[in-house]
């Protein structure tokens, strides 16, 4: 860890209250040269799955020495451990409730510690604001160069969330709604795709859909369904259809999405997290 590493924050605290500002104040007092970067403070209250998804689709765009401070903590004050995990891309400070599950599928963890050393906590931590009293000081000390093993004893087996639904059979992928963004785009567990000329190559992000070989999909001949509603083939961009038109496409996270050009697909479809999404395709191994 480099001294004065940037600190990236992800919480469900919102911005109407002082919680985020207080956490930054605590960290600024410990590591005044660190840069603070807000990933989001609009995670739905206590939604660990949403936070895990946002973190997994964000971390790679930050410097490798970043300290990620993730506080979405429905178990605050319970027996769940506060932890820090050092990886090949960033160090993560969070409750051990599965919020790091998706990112730890993609980056190798080198070391994990339970945040138990009182030297690196605020005095007399409260039972309800561990973000201020435990997680923020730990993140700031790590950013200022304190080694992770100074923060407490090793953490062994970490809590892991179950994989999102991604079932794959020849010619068919069955997923679920994983996230709905601010614009009403319906983001699915079917990913991650990458474009290669006029074909899509799927390397599944989640273990439930792991394959020996990537799947190659012709976007012009496949068909996406939301529940029983046909959406159509996969397009490269929103601008491929007229305003107000429903569209399937691959979003910036590499996941299959359903959107409306200049509208809200989630509102139009009545979509909710966990709703089924199906992609019918003919496997096409020809890439040009």
Please, could you describe this protein's structure?
The chain is an alpha+beta fold and 288 residues long. It folds into two domains: 7-150, S-adenosyl-l-methionine hydroxide adenosyltransferase, N-terminal (Rossmann fold); 166-280, Bacterial fluorinating enzyme like (Elongation Factor Tu (Ef-tu), domain 3), CATH 2.40.30.90. Helix content is 14%, strand content 29%. It has four helices and 18 strands. It has helices at 19-30, 48-56, 130-143, 265-269; strands spanning 7-11, 36-40, 67-71, 82-87, 91-95, 109-114, 166-169, 172-180, 186-188, 193-196, 199-202, 215-217, 223-226, 229-232, 234-235, 246-250, 256-260, 276-280. Helix 1 packs parallel to helix 3. It is elongated and about 60 Å long. The chain starts with 6 loop residues before the first strand and ends in an 8-residue tail after the last strand.
The biggest sheet amounts to: 9 strands, mixed
Helix fraction by DSSP (H/I, runs of at least 4): 10-25%
Task: Give the overall form.
Answer: elongated
Structural class: alpha+beta
Please, what is the average pLDDT? 92
The CATH topology of the largest domain corresponds to: Rossmann fold
Assign the CATH architecture of the largest domain: 3-Layer(aba) Sandwich
Report the uncertain regions: none
End-to-end C-alpha gap: 43 Å
Per DSSP, the total helix count is: 4
Radius of gyration: 21 Å
**CATH top level assignment of the largest domain:** Alpha Beta
In CATH, the homologous superfamily of the largest domain goes by the name S-adenosyl-l-methionine hydroxide adenosyltransferase, N-terminal
Number of structural units classed as domains: 2
H/E element string? EHEHEEEEHEEEEEEEEEEEHE
- What is the beta-strand fraction? 25-35%
| Count of beta strands | 18
């Amino acid at each position: 860890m480099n001294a004065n590493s940037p600190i990236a924050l992800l919480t469900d605290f919102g911005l109407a209250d002082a919680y985020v500002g207080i956490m930054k104040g605590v960290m600024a007092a410990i590591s005044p040269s660190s840069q603070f970067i807000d990933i989001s403070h609009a995670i739905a209250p206590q939604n660990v799955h949403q936070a895990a998804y946002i973190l997994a689709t964000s971390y790679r765009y930050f410097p490798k020495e970043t300290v990620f401070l993730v506080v979405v903590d429905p178990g605050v004050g319970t027996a769940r451990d506060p932890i820090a995990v050092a990886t090949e891309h960033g160090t993560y400070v969070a409750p051990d409730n599965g919020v790091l599950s998706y990112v730890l599928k993609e980056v190798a963890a080198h070391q994990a510690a339970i945040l138990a050393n009182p030297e690196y906590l605020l005095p007399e931590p409260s039972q309800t604001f561990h973000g201020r009293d435990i997680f923020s000081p730990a993140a700031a000390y790590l950013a200022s160069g304190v080694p992770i093993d100074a923060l407490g004893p090793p953490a062994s087996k970490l809590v892991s969330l179950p994989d999102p639904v991604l079932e794959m059979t020849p010619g068919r992928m069955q997923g679920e709604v994983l996230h709905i963004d601010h614009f009403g785009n319906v983001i699915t567990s079917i990913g991650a795709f990458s474009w290669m000329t006029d074909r899509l190559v799927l390397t599944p992000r989640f273990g439930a859909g792991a394959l020996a070989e990537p799947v190659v999909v012709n976007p012009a001949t496949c068909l996406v369904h939301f529940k029983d509603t046909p959406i159509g083939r996969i397009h490269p961009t929103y601008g491929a259809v007229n305003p107000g038109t429903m569209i399937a496409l691959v979003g910036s996270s590499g996941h299959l999405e359903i959107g409306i050009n200049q509208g809200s697909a989630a509102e139009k479809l009545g979509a909710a997290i966990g709703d089924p999404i199906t992609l019918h395709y003919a496997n096409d191994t020809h890439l040009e």
